[in-house]
Structure prediction request, 340 residues.
Amino acid sequence: MDTLTHVALGACIGEVFFEKGFGKKAMWWGAMAQSIADIDFIAFLWMDTPSALLAHRGFTHSILFLLLMAPAFALLAEKVHRPHNIRFVQWLFFFQIEMAAHILLDLCNNYGMGIFEPFIHDRYAFNLLYVADPLFSLMPGLAFVMLIIKNRYDLKRLIWVRWTFYAVTIYIVAAILIKINTENAAKSEIKSNSWIIKDKISTPAPFQIFLWYQVLQTKNGYWVSYRSVFDQSKTQTWNFHPRAERLLDNVADHENLQRLIRFSGGYYQANIIHDSLFFSDLRFGQVLGWHYPNNPFVFHYLLSHPIDQKLVVQRGRLQSWNLSELKIYFNRVFGKTDFR
Prediction:
């Protein structure tokens, strides 16, 4: 999730973990503990882009990092707040919960996380929430503001926190149910078209959980579609994108390419645009793909001249968005497929 959401939820957890009166101190410790894992983003300052992509949400989002950092935070907090009546084991459990919550939240996105690094390099993702979802973040954000404003002894502080936990739980459960519904619809399409599918993913389109981006992996490429929970039709439009792996033959032994393939989880495509060779990761969707099904994918890396590829994952997320496209997008979210 985005940093602000981590900070807000970290503060809420801190608020409920300690006795009344310590709340404001605990919320700041919670916010810090929820943010420490994202320190790996600085890898982009010195690593090449493919290496930095794998470093982000790698070791610092692992179980081992949690086990190492939670005691360090606990020792620091225990020393800073002397004298106090908080046991070390309570500090330790608090920071473990905070850091585990960060890991679980980030697993809900589609970036992929190396939770077993450095022993196992596989990356995992639940594909439940878009990385920045205003609807998900609204209640934690409001609660965070109220925790700052209200007196530390005000009983209404816990009411705001309680409703925050209710809201985020309900939202995640709703995302799970909508995802199941979306994938069931895709199963019917697969059966009716007699497609042989090797693997598939479904993940929310930007900023919500009602419109989902779907990719069906076949031997030679991918069927891609968008489906809203509000769609009336039982069938949906699928567009085929060839993998075109043969285009990568001349650079197959390059380490950067191998890192990109590993990062993509196998969902990648090669293509040539204006005599330049591009590598695309399909997991992050297309630029306005619900409107323009042949648009390029958000993640595209120039293999021919890998210069100035910083923040390559972000490139394209909001490319070509304007008021007109925003209106089209919200219409599509609520089930409209005719854009005329």
User: Anything to note?
Assistant: The chain has a mean pLDDT of 91. Residues 3-173 form one domain. The chain has nine helices and seven strands. The beta strands are 199-204, 211-217, 221-228, 239-242, 268-273, 276-286, 297-302.
